[in-house]
Amino acid sequence: MVCKLDVDVEEKTAWVESGATIGQLNYRIAEKSQNLLTFPVGTCPGVGVGGHFSGGGYGVLLRKYGLSADHIVDAHMVDVKGRFLNRESMGEDLFWAIRGGGGASFGIIVSWKINLVAVPPTVTVFNVPRTLEQNATKLLFKWQCIADKVHEDLFISPLLSRVNSTMVSAFTALFLGGVDRLLPLIQDSFPELGLTRKDCREMTFVESIVYFDGYEVEDPINVDVLLGRDFHVRFFRGKADYLTEPIPEEAFQGIYDIFFEQDQETNGVLLFFPYGGKISEISESEIPYPHRAGNIYTLLYYAGWDLESTDDTYQRHDNMLKKLFNYMTPYVAKNPRTAYINYRDLDVGTNDKLGHTSVQEASVWGKKYFKNNFYRLVHVKTMVDPENFFRNEQSIPPFNLVKDEL
Q1: For 109-158, where are the alpha helices, taking DSSP H only?
Q2: Which of 22-26, 149-153, 305-309, 394-398 has the lowest mean pLDDT?
Q3: What local confidence, expressed as pLDDT, does residue 330 receive?
Q4: Residue limits of the FAD-binding PCMH-type domain (predicted)?
């Protein structure tokens, strides 16, 4: 599948069709700009930009530049009346809604105009694993205390998993600069990690996308893999939480216990995504994505399994994630317990097959994903699609379905 992607290096903008992938977008921008420009997106190259952008879209540059949706300046879409619209003709309310409110509730987004961002010619990455015997718990606790406060050029993201008879926290990081500048920053903010020069590797930003997605990193790194669509095809189940306070050090034992309850065939991980920096400086009503200041990180619950797995594989992984999710209830954001629309959680309620929902159900998932922005999204939906033609399991309902709530 070939999707149109026009990059204007002089203007630092691009038009990209919704069917393009994150990997293709990263590759073409790097190619045209000699590795000096990029766009803030996630680290899964096979994800399509249409859904990624319309849900907000975050990745390793969120502390430096914020979300994908924060940098969208125009869009082309087809509305329920079959009209082809751009930003001017759709109006600012609808343009606001599709940048983080889930574009599928409002129409068919064909393409996006984006402002590109600068990256240095050299970035530094590292992956430092630490077991329980190497003080992984204390390191995770310390990370929580500094993750949103370190320099905005530094993004450190721990991944917690079970490896045989122990737990391993792998501290993976991207730094927008060279290793000589990185090491003093780590020494000042996170000396307990014990980072050394030999742990670090310098590369271009587009090469770091390959690195973060878990490909076998050759020398030189083959960035051509970003152009394909033959990525790591697996089934997976995911949930998301936001945290405004660190998990107490002693509470990690309960997390470990849940991992150790599972058999070796059940593969779950917790991924910690740091906040602070640019994403926290933007108002939570600027676009529909509201999870800004006050959040120290996002916690992603993830379980993946191979396509040829047995019938009960899903149930085992689903049960594990639900146990972890329930255990974390006292430690995550509350009133509401917030969630990320791009990790849609159907456990919190769905529309029926006709797109109808009760007031209570709509407000439950609406406030989790969008907080008070949910109400503005409902008003936009009512204006542009009052008959609810564009709908899915958790689409934004028009006013007539939630008017008692408002």
Answers
A1: 136-146
A2: 305-309
A3: 98
A4: 1-119
Model pLDDT, residue 231: 58
- Last residue within a domain, chosen from 300, 331, 362: 331
Q: Give the SS3 label for residue 253.
A: helix
Contacts of 366 (CB under 8 A, 6+ apart): 374, 377, 378, 396
Last residue of a domain, one of 118, 144, 171: 118
List 154's β-bridge partners, or say none.
175
What do you get for the CA distance between the two ends of the chain, in Å? 43
Site of tokens 């008017």: 403
CB distance 22 to 60 below 8 Å: no
Instruction: Report DSSP letters for 23-71, one per residue.
Output: HHHHHHHHHHHTTSEE----S-TTSBHHHHHHT----TTHHHH--SGGG
pLDDT at 353 over 70: no
- C-alpha–C-alpha distance, residues 384 and 224, integer Å: 41
Q: Which residue has the tokens 């606001």?
A: 96
Identify whether 222 is part of a domain.
no
What is the extent of the structural domain holding 32? 5-118
> What is this structure's pTM?
0.94
Q: What percent of the chain has pLDDT over 70?
A: 92
pLDDT digits (tens, 9 = 90+) for 65-79: 999 999 999 999 999
**pLDDT tens figures, 79-113:** 999 999 999 999 999 999 999 999 899 999 999 99
Give catalytic residue positions: 343
